[in-house]
Amino acid sequence: MIEVHLGDITRLQVDVIVNAANTHLxxxxxxxxxxxxxxxPRLLEACRELGGCPVGEVxxxxxxxxxxxxxxxxxxxxxxxxNLGEPELxxxxxxxxxxxxxREHMSSIAFPAISCGVYDYPPEQAxxxxxxxxxxxxxxxxxxxRIVFCCFDEAMAELYxxxxxxxxxx
Length: 170
Fold this sequence. Notes:
The protein has a six-stranded mixed β-sheet, with helices on both faces. Helix 3 (86-103) runs parallel beside helix 4. It has helices at residues 30-39, 41-50, 86-103, 123-140, 154-169; strands at residues 2-6, 16-21, 58-62, 70-75, 108-111, 146-151. By secondary structure, it is of the alpha/beta class. Strand 5 (108-111), helix 4 and strand 6 form a beta-alpha-beta unit. It has one domain (2-169): Leucine Aminopeptidase, subunit E, domain 1 (3-Layer(aba) Sandwich), CATH 3.40.220.10.
């Protein structure tokens, strides 16, 4: 099941929330900052111990003060025009998160719009990649059973709804 939710990802009732992180994993603005603030200072300590994460990959931490089981820190690409592997790197973030959720037997996961904030990924293209990767995953696997695209504004939520509808009509 795929849902589109408008609101704060740190307040969702899911097993895993995905953080749109930077390569240092040391917090930042947007979703990254909100997750670090909600989780508390122990998250920063745990992220320091990980020593960073390459673009296109994911690292996991406990959720500390956020009432979920895990936080997956996905490092999406900075948009530089689309000819430097950005689509594959973004798709890789979703694939790695979904594979990790399956390995850890998580039943639900919430994604923000990875790379769509300060990383300037064009939202329409990012949403298309996100929906494609999630749908392909669900076609192959049944875990996690519930996937949420969590959006901070109605315009982004509408992009996800339209892309999900378009995928179903194919």
